[in-house]
Every structure is written in C-alpha cells, then in structure tokens.
Amino acid sequence: MKSRRPSVILLPCHSLDDFPVYHKGDDAAGLLSGWTALWHPQLLAATGELPTWHRIDSPPAEVHDQLIVVPQVAYGNLATGFAARVQEAGGKLLRATGDRDTLIAAALEFVEPDRPLADDVVADFLALGYCYLQVQLLTRHMRYSSNLDLIHFGQQVVAAAHAALAEDGPTMRDRLQRCFDLLTEEREHYYPVDVRLIDLVVLPPFDSAERLSPQLDETHAVNLLAPAGNWQGWMNGPDGPKYREAFERGRWQAVGGEDAERRTPLLGPETLLAGLVRGRAEYERLIGVAPKVFGRRRFGLHWAYPQVLLRSGIVGALHATLDDGRFPEGLQLKTRWEGSDRGVIDAFARVPQDASLAETYLKFAIRIGEMLDSDHAAAMALVRWPGKPLPFFRDLLRVAHYCGALGRFVSFESFLREHRDPGITDRFLSDQYRSPYLQQAVIRGESDPLSNSTRYWSNAHQVAAISGLELLRETLEGRRDAATAIDVDRLQALTDDAEESADGSRSAAKTVAQSLDTAASRTAAAFGRSGKGRGWLVLNPTGSVRRTGIRLPLDAPLPAVTRPIYAADRAADGIDVVVDVPAMGYVWIPAEGKGSAPMSGPPLGEEFILRNEFFETTIDRASGGIRTYHHYDVRANRLSQQLAIRLGDGETPYTRMQADSIETLRLNRACGEIESRGRLVTLDDRTVGTFRQRFRILRGSRILEIEGEVTSDEPLKSDPWKSYVCQRLVWRDQAADCWRDSSQVRVAAGPKRVEAPGYFEIEFEPRRTTLLTGGLTFHRRPESHHLDSLLKVRGETTTEFRFGLALDVPHGSHLAQHFRTPPIVVADVPCPPQGSTGWLFHVDARNVLATRWQGLTDEQGRTVGYRVRLLETLGRPAKVRLASAREAVSGAKVDFVGDRREACETTDGKVLVEMVPNEFVEVEVRWQG
Q: Considering only the top CATH level, what class is 195-435?
C-alpha cells in the first residue's frame, strides 16, 4: 500500500460554524459521503493523519500525492484549472456523490491497498468519521468551542487503522472505543444529558418476506408501527415464527393499537373504541402481545383518544402522524396529552424525521442542538419503511453501539417510562386538528366521498338502536337466546370497515337495516306476548324521549290526541300522527275500534308558509329556498337557505336558484309539507343544474325537515373546497358563536373548514339555531355568518340530501341521534300487558347520550343486569341516575378491557353515576336476584 499525504475535502463554507447543513437530497448525500469516505481505515493508514478540510474557494497550494474530494454541491465552485494542477502533481481529485461505496472504491485505487478489509471493520471507521463531524457541528451550534485534543484523537484513530490492517481485532476495537469515548466526553463537556433515538419502522400490508428480513438481523430496539390488520399477511408468511420470537424477546416492540386506520375524527366514539378492542385481540392472536404505545401512520389524531386509550390498556402515545393534515405539536418532547375529559396520557410529541432522506443525517446535530436549547433534553424518532436503510442510518447505529455521543436507541415505551415528567400538560382542542380526507378522496378518484359518511352515520345509529332493542327483548324474556340474538359487535365491525367504501357502505346499510327490522319484530313480539287487540307498536331504543312523526294507513282509526299522542290528523293518503315515545320504551296505537274526533286547531301553514307552536318559515317564491325562519317572540329572521353550485373563485362564484314551481303537498293539523322545484342558473342565466326540495313540519316539533335532490350539469374541479354543490345558510348575527359536534360531543367550530357530521349550531344567547347535518360532514364558512354544506364534489354520485333546522334545542347530540335513526314501527302487535305506553330503562341527564346497550347474563343465560356506555356531550359535569324496570343492587364504572372497576352509589334501586365533562364511560348495573 502506498503512503500518501493527508486526504482533504473541499467544502462550500468558511468554517464549521457555517457548515452547509441546509442541503437536501443528493447534495446532502454527497457532503456526507465525501466526509465519511475519507475515514476509511486504509486511507487513514496510508496518510498517517486525520483527513482535513479546506474552503472550496481557498484550496491547498500543495496537492502532490494527495487525495482531494469535492462534494457534488460544491464542484461548480472549483477554481478553473485546479483539477489539472492536482493531476499534474500526482494527486487525485474525486467528485463525491451520494454513492459512498463507489467513492470509496475510487479513493482506494489511489493508495493501492494490499487486500480488502471486512465490511464491519470499514463500517466502524466510517461511523467514527460521521460521529466526529456531528459532534463538531453540535459543539458550535451550542455556542461552545471544541475541547478535543486533536493530536491525541488523531493518534488513536491512526493506531486503530493500523490495527485493522494488521487484523488485530481487539486492539482495533479498543482504540476505536477510546476515540468514541473522547467524542462522548467532548459532547458531555457542554451538555451532559442522554440523547435517545427511536427507530420507527412503518409496516405496510404484506408484499414480500424479504422486505422485513433486515430488521430480524438488527440488535437495537426496533419499533414497528402498524394497525393489527397489517400483521395478518406477515405472520402467515414463512418468517411468521421469527417475527413472533422477536416480539417475545423484546427486540421488537409494536406501536399501534387499532385493527385498521380509519377516519376516526369523522366517526363516532363507538367506532374508535371498537377499533381498539378488535385491534387488541388481533395483536394478541397474531404477535402474542398488545401494544402499550398507541400510534398511527395515517392522519387521525383526535382529542377523544386519550381517555379511550387509558381505559383500553394503553400507557403512552405517539402524538404525530405521517400523513397529510394538520395537528398541533407539544411544548416538550414528552408531554402529557390531555383529552376531552381532562384525562392525560404520556405522549411523544415531536414529528419523526424521515430516515430515508440524507438531509436528516446531515442536519442531525443541529436538530439535537435545537432540542437541547428548547427542551433541555433530546430525543429523535427516525421513521422508515422496512428493508435496508441508508448507509448514514447504519453509521448512526454503529455510533450508538460504541457510545452515547449522538444517542442511544430505545423503544417508545422505554422513552416514555424513563424520560422525566415534563410537568406540562398539552390540551389540544378539536379545531387544532384538520383532516385531509376529503381532498385525498377526490384526488384518488374515490366514489362518494360525501355520502359514504351519511351512510356510515345512518348505519352507526341503527346499530346503536339494535343494541337497545336487544336489551329490551332480553329484559322482557328474562334471558339471552344465543340462537336468535343479533351479534351487535359484528354489525359494528361491518359498519366500521365500510365507512369509506361506497359499495361496502351500501352493502352494510342493507345488512344493518335487515337486522334492525328483525330486532324490532322480535322485541315487539316480546312486548305483545299475552296481550290483547291489534295495533302498531312504536319503539324507541335510545336513551331519551323521542317525539316523532309516523304515517298510518288511511283506513286506520284516528288516534285520540291524549298523551303520549301529541297530534293526529287525516290527509289524502294516510293519517299523520305525532307521538312521544319514552326512552327505551314504547307506545302502542290501536288499529281496531272507532276512531276519535279530529283534533281542533288551524292547519300548519298556508301557501308558501309553514308554522307550528314554535316557529314559522316562509318559502321564497322566486328562488324556492327559505326566505325566513323565525320564532314568534322575535320576528327578526334567524336565517335564510338556498342551494347553489360554487363554480370557482371570483366575484360571483355561486349560482342562484330559480323556482319553476312551489306546491303545497300536505297541510293538516299534524303535518305540513311544501315542495319547490327549479333550476340553478349562472349570472348570465345559463342553467347548470336542477333542484327539488321538500320542507316538512310537525306539530309540536322544533325541527324543520329539508330533504331533496340537486343535480349539476357543470363538471366539478379537483379542489373540493373550491368547486362543489352545496346548501347555503346565511344568518343575521355575525357575532354569534358557532358550535359543531365532534365524535358526538359539542365543540367550538373553526372559522373556515368545518367537520360536523351530526349538527352545526349558531348561538346568540339565549337563541340557538341548529342545523342537523344528517351525516353530511364537510362544511365551509366563506364568511363568519355563512355556511356552505357540501352536497356534491367530484366523484360524488348521490344527489339526494336531508337536513333539519332546529329552533332553540339545547341538546344537539340527542337530536342528531334521533334524526338519523328511522322511526321504528311494528304493525299487527297486541297491546302489551303493561299498558299502551311504558319504559324499561331511563337515563335522566339530558346532556348524557347512551351510545350502546348490552345485557349481562349469568352461567345459565339469565339476564341479571346490563351494561351501558354513556357520553357526556356538552362539556359539563353530570350526575346521572340510571333507572330500570328492575331494581339495581350494584353499579360500577368499568374500563374497556375489564381490568378496573369503580363502584357507583346505588339508592332506591337506581345507580348514580358521576361524570366529568366529555367523559365516555361504561357502566355495569346488576339487578336484584
């Protein structure tokens, strides 16, 4: 091997203080490759000294017998003729690109080594060169000067290189260890804290077993991020037993929690919980252990997560996603993530760095320094796909093996357990998160990006109703019949899995609707057993009283208008009945006998006007939209409504409505309906769409129902937030507070884009006007007093819509639940022996929503109590009394994995449950034997 003068790298900077860490891509890779390649042990042994660097605009004068490397990013700044001078002097000039192996091979030709060295030996020296660079950059970033004795350090490095060439492994490793220890002392001189590194591997669905093979050979802590569903293919593959062993030995740690990554912020709390419960079971079945740290690759963080995670066996979370969308960052590396109910969970609150980018490693020391400045601690998560990593990641691994100068690799669970408590709680509000779902669905060309949500919410509310009907039946029959019981969990899974699939959600809707009919028929049969007469049984499987309108056949007897019948009147095609159905109860309406006299009072409106006891609305004759909507106490208009197509930006981006006909379809003492039809026209009177909308009002109801259809002949553009068909609402009070629902909880609405699957509320104390959105989730606020509810964007095939406008209703979540749950009426049922109306369960707090019911059975299958999940919806404390037809002897709050119980007070056969604001809790009640 030939001896050479010390190697040199030419850099585009004046000193290491302004080292060009801002470069990206190939330029960043070239800088790192050029620097570390010169630390090859054969180059070090040939030169007998550490590599040096010079400014690109001030290269060395003496270049004979010298290897000079110029990074690609700086090659254009090289002085004209310098390359020729190097060649004439017997030196060698190399351009450093991102391919470090090619650069090393070219450099070794200059020293003509006797034999190649083992890859592991070379890798240790390259890692030392990387560590040296980063420690020097970190020293300067922390505003310190280097304290390293370069002469001694250089002697140790060269001695290690000679030992490597002599194949003296113990001496080489000893000398290298001294070098790494010197760099550690250098770093700890100005900041003696441990730096933690977290290797986060994102596991895709199974494609090839070889892709995950490199992770099996790694000895550091590897965190694998994936929903449980992604593990199915991998565990069924040839290396499945090896993966399970890696988890059992603790080398791998699972990060995740859910069975699949759904659009959680747009869905209900039951879906969130069910995903975690199913995910836990799948993890345990597939890999033998459930994750202790929650994480997602896809956007989906939400303020409802912490309390559900804590009650599902999760101890920590990664508060970041690797997708589009917006989410807040924590104040510290480790934060206390406070959820909607004020419960807190430890969370890693920094966005992971992309381990596939060279700039991540180029700027590594600067990022660590910034953390030390702001957090007085440092930790970095490096995220990557499975497979072979960049060579600079391998450098970092080897540095961590020798010393902690740049950090030690740990698992997320270890970091959260060992890192000091920050003493700071981050309460991230719902509107600090903005999902990318609508934009992504349109870009991907997905079908029905809007109506998928309406079908999901319809299915979800019906599944909740089925759970209530099943509990009513079990209570009446005194036992659970396993042969005929409906599997509510299966229906929930079917609903959840199809939430963003047009075909899947339609198929799920059919299955859920059939199950609802079956549950209603069986429950009605249980009520009517040993009863007399024939009639219609109206069921209410929700936790609050429901005033609903139903239509009976024209030949049926007219019901008497006495409680619980609020109104009844004949029309041309049937009998309209308004009935108050008790919570978790029923009303029976006879189908036999003589009808009662018609109720007194005026009809619910006149031409172009609908009115009842609470409000009056006027249909605009020219447009066919709502001209006025107001309460009688204050004649000022609450709001106006129109349908429109937004064609894009500009002074007049919206079409206008032009009515062709307005017809009164029904006008009696119980119900009124008006339908308008027309066209949507542009400013130059060009027709670009058609509409039909029907307005419906019931006596005693605070809701104006709006249902209809709108079509567009104009092709919509790719940005769904600028090109859409919508319902437009405009209200008078620009200073009104606006609210929306998020996971069925009332939260403040943001100023621009709004996700409100249940309702949107306009509040100007003491007045409230609530738009029931019926599952249409996406809305836009062009002005503070305008709301565009998106009905159609590119890819949407559904043209029908249904909204409700409610006046001064304090509990929007209950109303939204009723609005999307169809009236449940079973014909030809005997009158229950208990009477024509009754209830079996009752939740007395109006701000608490029952989201799921389930019977409790003993070993013989007898029903001995029930479980109910309750959600506080208004952000207020609640004391809830749970009553049932049978006296309770005990009650307790239970977590979602059955490990923790908190006893509740039981008085006079009722269970008192104390709830904090926005709490989501499961309560178990047992009856007297």
A: alpha beta
SS3 714: coil
- Do residues 644 and 655 lie in contact, with contact meaning Cβ atoms separated by under 8 Å? yes
Whole-angstrom distance, CA of residue 308 vs CA of residue 918: 12
| Residues 837/588, Cβ–Cβ less than 8 Å | yes
**Looking at the domain 605-813, which fold is it?**
Beta-galactosidase; Chain A, domain 5 (2.70.98)
Per DSSP bridges, beta strands 687-698 and 671-681 are antiparallel
3-state DSSP call for residue 428?
Answer: coil
**Residue 171 neighbours by CB under 8 Å, 6+ apart:** 159, 160, 163
In three-state secondary structure terms, 210 is helix
* Burial zone of 114 (CB within 10 Å; 0-12 exposed, 13-18 middle, 19+ buried): exposed
Provide the residue count of the chain: 929
Q: 695: number of CA atoms within 13 Å, CB side?
A: 31
Would you say 456 and 267 are in contact if contact means Cβ atoms under 8 Å apart?
yes
Other CB atoms within a 10 A radius of the CB of residue 809 amount to 18
Q: Give yes or no for a contact between 704 and 695, defined as CB atoms under 8 angstroms apart.
A: yes
Cis before 227 (ω within 30) = no
Q: How far is CA 68 from the centre of its chain?
A: 52
What ranges do the domains of the chain cover? 5-188, 195-435, 605-813, 844-927
Is the CB of residue 36 less than 8 Å from the CB of residue 71?
Answer: no
Strand, coil or helix: 225 = strand
Burial of 55: CB neighbours in 10 Å, binned 0-12, 13-18, 19+: middle
Rounded CA-CA distance 267/460 in Å is 9
**What is the CA 143 to chain-centroid distance, rounded?**
41
Express each pLDDT in 72-118 by its tens digit. Answer: 999 999 999 999 999 999 999 999 999 999 999 999 999 998 899 99
CB-based contact 581:565 (threshold 8 Å): no
Does 844-927 carry CATH code 2.60.40? yes
Check: CB of residue 893 under 8 Å from CB of residue 921.
Answer: yes
Contact criterion met (CB below 8 Å) for 741 and 759: yes
Supply the pTM of this predicted model: 0.94
Residue-wise pLDDT tens digits, 613-665: 999 999 999 999 999 999 998 878 999 999 999 987 777 799 999 999 999 99
**HSE (CB half, 13 Å, CA atoms) of 815?**
25
